[in-house]
Amino acid sequence: MTQLVTTSELQLIEEYTMQTMAVPQEVLIERAAMAVQEVIGAGNFDLSNVLVLAGLGNNGADGVALARLLHLQGIDVSLQFVGNLNRAKDSVQHQLKIAEHCGLTRSEKSDFQKATLIIDAIFGTGLNNTIPDGLQKMMRAANHADNSVVAIDVPTGISANTGEVLGSALKAKSTVTFGYEKVGLTKGGGKKFSGEVIVKDIGLLTPENFIFSQAK
Ligand SMILES: NC(=O)C1=CN([C@@H]2O[C@H](COP(=O)(O)OP(=O)(O)OC[C@H]3O[C@@H](n4cnc5c(N)ncnc54)[C@H](O)[C@@H]3O)[C@@H](O)[C@H]2O)[C@@H](O)CC1
Ligand SMILES: [K+]
User: Where does K(+) bind (predicted)?
Assistant: First the structure.
């Protein structure tokens, strides 16, 4: 039996990890990025031209950290933000600062066709509304291109709680999800869009006797 989490259960686990257990958020972000680096480095993906599409929340922060790790590994990686960077969370700004110190500059616009692998770090468990129209258009174009997509935590456009497609979703070949599999990856659009789901430990700490509502 596999343990599943809802977004509210995950929120409790994240709070417990960072507030009660005092694990810094940066540690979780670094481990999330390293987990994805390990999966994409295992030999099943063409890493000759990697495009990281990063959003403005913590899912984007994971993507920026991953872009930096790949850059330091000598991989040709482009980092493109989706949305106005001025509105990005501090975690994203912080990760971008580290990446820039390591010599990785962000791209303004990237060529989907050129990318051999797209990393989807646009939205994760925080998505709670319909994807804006402009972004839906870009996602449909990416779905039509012939690249492999690896989603970080949850494919963009999928509700991590219900599996519903919130407007449009980015079709992943694999989804690297953190801690526990999200309920939304197991049903509806989530099941269809997430491809192979790989659960990775990133150091989230779960309170003893925590009650999970669902399993599969
Ligand atoms: N909570 C944490 O500290 C950690 C989170 N992690 C990553 O962070 C993700 C969750 O991060 P966030 O909670 O920051 O959320 P996301 O990065 O998924 O989304 C960013 C923000 O977008 C906004 N938003 C939601 N729906 C929208 C819509 N339709 N249009 C425009 N904006 C919208 C919300 O304010 C949301 O906070 C996880 O999936 C995981 O990848 C990991 O780095 C581990 C640590
Ligand atoms: K994502």
Answer: 59, 120, 156
What atom in ligand 1 is closest to the CA of residue 152?
A: 41
**Which ipTM did the prediction report?**
0.96
Residue-level pLDDT at 117: 96
**pLDDT digits 0-9 by tens, 164-191:** 999 999 999 999 999 999 999 999 999 9
Contacts of 11 by beta carbon, 8 Å cutoff, 6+ apart = none
Query: Which of 5, 11, 64, 123 should be mutated for ligand 1, with most atoms under 8 A from CB?
Result: 123
Distances (CA, A) of 87 to 83, 175, 203, 209: 8, 26, 28, 38
Which residue ranges make up each domain of the chain? 3-215
Q: For residue 207, report the distance from its CA to the centre of ligand 2, in Å.
A: 26
Q: The domain 3-215 belongs to what CATH superfamily?
A: YjeF N-terminal domain (3.40.50.10260)
Amino acid residing at 9: E
